[in-house]
Design goal:
Length: 192
C-alpha cells in the first residue's frame, strides 16, 4: 500500500487499508491490480481525475491540427490565375497545412501530360523553399497530383508572412509584376 505522500506503508489487509483511508478522509484506489499482492494508493480520487482531465486538455491545446487543402489547376491556365493560386498555396503552407495540388485534364489534353508536369513543376518552383514535396507529380486517371508539406526550417511565423506581404505591396513589387503580365498579354492580343 502507498500513502498519500507517496511513502510505502507495507502490506495491509483491505479492511485496514479502508479504515486508514477513511481516517485521512481520502479514497483507497487500486493502482496495479495484476501485481502480487495488488498495489493500492490512498489519494483524493476526484482531485486526481480533475488534474488528469486538465493535463489532457492542455495536451490537446498544444497539438497541431494539420489538414490537407486542395488547389486545382488546368493545363491551359493563364498567368494571372496561376499566380493567384500559387499565392493561396503559400498562404496554406504558412498556416501549417499540407497542400494537394491537382491538375485536371479534359478530352484531348490527356495526350499531353508533359504540359501538366510543366505546370506542377512551375508551382513547385514558385513556392520554393516554403515547402517540401511529399508526393511528386504523378498521373492518376484524368488528374495529375502532387502533395506539398510546409518545410519546418524555412516556414516563417504567421505574423511575419503578413508583414512581408504588406511590405511587398508597399514597395510596388506586386504592381510591377501585374503590369508586366498585362503588357505581355496585350502584345499577344495585338499580334493576333
Amino acid at each position: 500500500m502507498i500513502g498519500p505522500d507517496g511513502s510505502q506503508l507495507g502490506i495491509k489487509t483491505v479492511p485496514e487499508a479502508l479504515t486508514l483511508a477513511r481516517s485521512l478522509d481520502l479514497d483507497l484506489v487500486e493502482v496495479a491490480p495484476l501485481a502480487n499482492p495488488p498495489v493500492c494508493r490512498i489519494m483524493d480520487y476526484g482531485k486526481y481525475r480533475y488534474e488528469e482531465s486538465q493535463r489532457a486538455k492542455e495536451s490537446r491545446k498544444k497539438a497541431t491540427h494539420i489538414s490537407v487543402k486542395e488547389v486545382k489547376f488546368r493545363p491551359k491556365i493563364g498567368q494571372g490565375d496561376f499566380d493567384t493560386k500559387v499565392r493561396h498555396i503559400r498562404d496554406f503552407l504558412n498556416e501549417g497545412h499540407k497542400v494537394k495540388v491537382t491538375l485536371q485534364f479534359r478530352g484531348r489534353e490527356m495526350a499531353h501530360p508533359e504540359l501538366g508536369a510543366k505546370v506542377l513543376n512551375g508551382v513547385a518552383e514558385q513556392v520554393g523553399p516554403l515547402a517540401k514535396i511529399e508526393a511528386s507529380p504523378r498521373l492518376d486517371g484524368r488528374n495529375m497530383t502532387m502533395v506539398m508539406a510546409p518545410d519546418k526550417k524555412a516556414a516563417p511565423t504567421k505574423k511575419n508572412s503578413g508583414s512581408e506581404r504588406r511590405s511587398d505591396t508597399d514597395t510596388g513589387q506586386d504592381a510591377d509584376s501585374v503590369d508586366d503580365s498585362s503588357a505581355d498579354s496585350g502584345s499577344v492580343a495585338d499580334g493576333e
